[in-house]
């Protein structure tokens, strides 16, 4: 109410001077107290896709790759020991052969379409998955994946949570290919003959193709675990597949689409879709949240941190600069001290970046950007923003405390914290634009200039 009585010009003048002194203050501090910066190879949270994925399988129809162990990269990521990231890509009209693994998988479609079939002792379920669809594949479930599309590649990211071993899991393929032996072949002749009530020659010929190989008949072995399918075969396999229903968000076993929900944050610079364990039983099981984020070129996801979830971010499309802030221990005589450290990286497609819990992060989209994030340890996680109008934790600190904590006067601190009128996503260039226009001496800044 008081403010209304202050003449507008004077108010503007004060605001301008305040912003001037604050921005100088910050810059000086940045220059005098150098923040150490880790980028590229020295940044343990950044996994460049060219360097850190190991190929498990590759042929002309697609590939399967697994990301290096998180805990081996850095001891700051010890608690991700039991999580692995797998990427699968396949060409149109192909099949990834039936197999199971000693890991729970959380599968998300990043591009293209898939028909996923899960096989259980009492039946099977086939689902049509599209971009943004997610589905848990429980450990030990036999599954196979068809890319039914005639043109588009299918790209899938799986979060793997091994059950026998921390950090290691294996794929058990049912049939033999040149790349991989059928696990059934591990059994002795006597066990196989008795179990199938058949002669071993017949078993070998029909299941393992050992004799057929020479004849190159129908019985010859497949070249690899990703194979080509005929149109009729695809039509047949797709016929009984279900599209996911609207209700499937809360389903125990049906796939759900991250993009079907209203975004939790959205404005002209970006939007964030998120499904938490509270909303979906499959995610509750794994204690993981999933976010699917689009940021427009020139948009900035303002600094925020997750209260307890560690986030594994996978870039689907586009490029961004990311800044993560953490503390690094410094060895000084007798004393332990912690130094603020900036971990930055230039992200591009397929790159992975880990955001530890409590570490603030900001993402600057340098092109239109789309990424997927797995939040590990997600139950009751909260995202705390450090700027912006909504969900800003700093603005919840009482003025009296802000005044003591920061060098500026209480009023100035509050003004600065409340200045940003947008929330979550903002213009990454706004200050540069403002400075440019000030350089050009627009009428307002000329008036203000005469004030001091
Ligand atoms: C975002 O990146 C662009 C391009 O590199 C740069 O011009 C801009 O200053 C950055 N913005 C922020 C807020 O870092």
UniProtKB/TrEMBL annotation:
Which Pfam families does this one have? Cupin_1
Domain of life, per lineage: Eukaryota
Signal sequence interval, chain numbering: 1-25
Q: Where is this region: Disordered?
A: 432-452
Task: Tell me which residues make up the Cupin type-1 domain.
Answer: 53-204, 256-414
Keyword line: Signal
SMART domains found in the cross-reference section: Cupin_1 (SM00835)
Task: Point to the regions of Basic and acidic residues compositional bias.
Answer: 432-443
The UniProt entry, under InterPro entries, shows: Cupin_1, RmlC-like_jellyroll, RmlC_Cupin_sf, Seed_Storage-Functional
- Record the organism: Vigna mungo
Q: Which PANTHER family match?
A: OS03G0336100 PROTEIN-RELATED, VICILIN C72
Record has Signal as a keyword:
yes
Membrane-spanning regions, if any?
A: none
Note the SUPFAM superfamilies from the entry: RmlC-like cupins (SSF51182)
Kindly provide the name given to this protein in its UniProt entry.
Answer: Cupin type-1 domain-containing protein
- Family according to the record: Belongs to the 7S seed storage protein family.
């Amino acid at each position: 109410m008081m403010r209304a009585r202050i003449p507008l010009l004077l108010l503007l003048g004060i605001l301008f001077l305040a912003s001037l002194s604050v921005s100088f203050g910050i810059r000086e501090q940045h220059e005098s107290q150098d923040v150490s910066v880790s980028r590229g190879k020295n940044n343990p949270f950044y996994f460049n896709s060219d360097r850190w994925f190991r190929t498990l399988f590759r042929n002309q129809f697609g590939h399967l790759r697994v990301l290096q162990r998180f805990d081996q990269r850095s001891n700051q990521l010890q608690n991700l020991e039991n999580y692995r990231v797998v990427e699968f890509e396949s060409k149109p009209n192909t099949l990834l052969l039936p197999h199971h693994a000693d890991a729970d998988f959380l599968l998300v479609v990043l591009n293209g379409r898939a028909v996923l079939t899960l096989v259980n002792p009492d039946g099977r379920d086939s689902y049509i998955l599209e971009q943004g669809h997610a589905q848990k594949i429980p450990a030990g479930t036999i599954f196979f994946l068809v890319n039914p599309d005639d043109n588009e590649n299918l790209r899938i990211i799986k979060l793997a949570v091994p059950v026998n071993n921390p950090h290691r899991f294996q794929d058990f393929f049912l049939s033999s290919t040149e790349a991989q032996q059928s696990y059934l072949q591990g059994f002795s002749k006597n066990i196989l003959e008795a179990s199938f009530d058949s002669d071993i020659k017949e078993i070998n010929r029909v299941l393992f193709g050992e004799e057929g190989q020479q004849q190159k008949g129908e019985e010859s072995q497949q070249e690899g675990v990703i194979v080509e399918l005929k149109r009729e075969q695809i039509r047949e396999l797709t016929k009984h597949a279900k599209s996911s229903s609207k209700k499937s968000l809360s389903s125990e076993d049906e796939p759900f689409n991250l993009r079907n929900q209203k975004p939790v944050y959205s404005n002209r610079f970006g939007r964030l879709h998120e499904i938490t364990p509270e909303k979906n039983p499959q995610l509750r099981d794994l204690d993981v949240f999933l976010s699917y984020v689009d940021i427009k070129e020139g948009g900035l996801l303002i600094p925020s941190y997750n209260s307890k979830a560690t986030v594994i971010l996978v870039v689907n499309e586009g490029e961004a600069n990311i800044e993560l802030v953490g503390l690094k221990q410094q060895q000084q005589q007798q004393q332990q001290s912690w130094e603020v450290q900036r971990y930055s990286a230039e992200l591009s497609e397929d790159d992975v970046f880990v955001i530890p819990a409590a570490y603030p992060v900001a993402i600057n989209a340098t092109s239109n950007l789309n990424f997927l994030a797995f939040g590990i340890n997600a139950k009751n996680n909260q995202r705390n923003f450090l700027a912006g109008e909504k969900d800003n934790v700093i603005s919840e600190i009482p003025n009296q405390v802000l005044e003591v904590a920061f060098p500026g006067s209480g009023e100035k601190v509050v003004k600065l914290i409340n200045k940003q009128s947008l929330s979550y996503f903002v213009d990454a260039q706004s200050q540069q634009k403002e400075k440019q226009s000030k350089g050009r001496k627009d009428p307002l800044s000329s008036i203000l200039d005469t004030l001091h």
